[in-house]
Specification:
heterodimer, A: about 300 residues, alpha/beta, two-stranded antiparallel sheet, 9 helices, 12 strands, about 15% strand, globular, B: mainly alpha, 2 domains, 3-stranded antiparallel beta sheet, 11 helices, about 10% strand
């Protein structure tokens, strides 16, 4: 196992509701309402790359919100799956932010976005083979070393499979977690999107996923693209969480619960932003599902006695 | 392999197609198109966020077509997308379809400049009372030295891009015909209240601020002109929260 463990709660920050309540994405449109209403929510998640400036409104509000809530930091630009070396200057800026706000979790993607010095602003897929596995593990170790903490790696949303892949995605991810000691961020919407697009069964995927390494879950909405020849689900983060994803989430909560595990859940939203209250309602719905799963298992236990 | 992947995203290069597990060429195209679309649309949207006035001026279709040409030749060089567009103004300057708007490149440079300044560090500045106290305590206020935050910029523009920018920002409706675009303008760009602010200033004010930025005393900075109103100009500096320090000795440049 890794010598890095997740850091939850720094001394200078308020007591945490992190593990009991779900969180939502932090967006500039919500800064004012959050600070005036201080709604009950487990945590807020930011994209690291939106808060790396020296000043400006985003950083100002982030620090104010940090005084009231736990945060999680989600990197979208480290390009851990990249063929070229990690951008060390960028990694250092991310490390400074992480050090400054002491998030409960830092997570990144099993994907690439940078090739040499060019950044393509998308989470591009990687083949599941031995050379890629070795490279991804090296990069994760490098990131954990620089951040001095365990990171969580997120399963990707994909729109095709590679002909050269010779491992399943779940085996690939399991091996990464085993070798590097990183935790996993299980994005349920990505499971639905990828399995739909690659014609596989999301329940098979979840049953094969290394749940014991999961440290956080993401829920988000997707859309179906316009082409009629081969409809694909697009991981767009601009709609409420769909019913099929809620059902998968409930299934996953049951699986986790049977292992005596629970995982902080994020309602992820990046576009077509609703009122803050609507996102908070989705977070509460996730809480309800988790609590119901817990009660189900307790009542089953009582019946057995 | 990612070289080929990148080429397939940004050009007609098909070498990468053999990597995609699909029955037909059409299926490969459809699957790859999701990524092509993500890359191109997200970068065009990013440029639209960074250059809103430029976009409003040329219209949505023209802007998106121009932005696409730009991103194909100049993809971002950093994952911090708010820093994207460093060369967009240079690109516009040599972009033939935009030649009928000779001020467009300068306007884009101004927008980029403002966003960069917004994201730059803040400096503490004096409030109204602190300024008043410093002036009241001075034996001879004309010998005082005023410093402005080091990120403050003075620009001379051959076109009235400051007025154009403000006409758009004030109500979102562009009134190009109300701006004498070929008039030269002096601009003060400075950060107050967390955000970069643009002020269109007079020639005399520009001379005065330039002297202050060069650590001259109020008396030395005063332009020799009847059109300059020191009281009114100082009131503006206080309102804009741009006085970072008042001293009786010259202030060393940082």
């Amino acid at each position: 196992m890794s010598r890095f463990t997740p850091k939850v709660e720094g001394g200078k920050f308020p007591p945490s509701t992190f593990s009991s309540l779900s969180g939502i994405s932090l967006k500039p449109a919500y800064y004012q309402s959050i600070l005036s209403d201080l709604p009950e929510v487990g945590f807020f998640e930011i994209h690291a790359e939106n808060y790396l400036s020296k000043g400006g409104p985003a950083r100002h509000y982030l620090h104010q919100i940090r005084e009231h809530y736990p945060l999680t930091v989600h990197g979208v630009g480290l390009s851990i799956g990249g063929e070229t070396a990690l951008d060390l200057e960028h990694l250092k800026r991310v490390a400074t932010l992480v050090d400054e706000i002491q998030p409960a979790i830092f997570s990144e993607h099993l994907a690439w976005s940078t090739h040499y010095s060019q950044f393509l602003n998308d989470l591009l897929p990687v083949p599941y083979d031995r050379p890629t596995l070795d490279r991804v593990c090296r990069h994760i170790e490098q990131v954990q070393e620089c951040l001095q903490r365990q990171i969580l790696l997120e399963n990707p949303s994909t729109y095709f499979s590679f002909t050269r892949s010779n491992m399943s995605e779940t085996d690939f991810i399991r091996e990464i977690a085993k070798r590097t000691g990183c935790g996993l961020l299980l994005d349920i919407n990505n499971v639905e999107v990828s399995c739909f697009n690659n014609r596989t069964n999301p329940y098979d995927y979840l049953n094969d996923f290394p749940l014991d390494a999961v440290g956080q879950m993401h829920l988000a909405g997707h859309t179906v693209d316009g082409n009629t020849i081969l409809p694909l689900k697009i991981d767009s983060h601009d709609e409420p969480v769909s019913d099929d994803v809620w059902t998968l989430y409930q299934h996953t909560c049951r699986q986790l619960n049977s292992l005596n595990l629970a995982s902080p859940t994020l309602i992820e939203r990046d576009g077509n932003l609703p009122l803050l209250s609507e996102l908070l309602a989705e977070a509460r719905y996730a809480d309800t599902i988790r609590q119901n799963v817990l009660m189900e298992s307790e009542s089953r236990y009582e019946q057995r006695i | 392999m990612n070289n080929e992947f990148k080429a397939a995203l940004l050009t007609d290069d098909t070498r990468f197609y053999r990597e995609i597990d699909a029955q037909t060429m059409q299926e490969k195209e459809i699957r790859l198109n999701v990524y092509r679309n993500n890359v191109v649309v997200s970068l065009i949207d990013a440029l639209a966020d960074i250059f809103p006035v430029t976009q409003a001026l040329v219209g949505d279709d023209f802007f998106r077509a121009m932005a696409k040409q730009y991103l194909l030749v100049s993809p971002p060089e950093s994952p911090i997308i708010s820093e994207y567009g460093h060369f967009f103004s240079d690109f516009i300057r040599q972009f033939d379809p935009a030649k009928t708007l000779p001020f467009l490149a300068d306007l884009a440079a101004l927008e980029y400049n403002l966003l960069t300044l917004t994201n730059d560090a803040e400096y503490r500045t004096l409030d109204h009372e602190e300024v008043a106290t410093a002036f009241a305590q001075a034996e001879d206020p004309s010998e005082l030295y005023l410093s402005l935050p080091p990120t403050t910029q003075l620009l001379t523009s051959p076109f009235a891009i400051g007025s154009l920018y403000q006409a758009h920002r004030n109500d979102g409706r562009l009134r190009l015909n109300q701006v004498a675009i070929n008039e030269c303008e002096y601009l003060l760009i400075a950060k107050s209240h967390l955000i970069a602010q643009l002020h269109v200033i007079s020639y005399e004010e520009a001379r005065f601020f330039k002297q202050l930025l060069q650590n001259k005393s109020l008396e030395e900075a005063l332009p020799d002109s009847n059109d300059f109103d020191l009281g009114a100009t100082l009131a503006k500096l206080i309102e804009w929260k741009l006085i970072s320090y008042i001293a009786v000795q010259p202030i060393k440049a940082e």
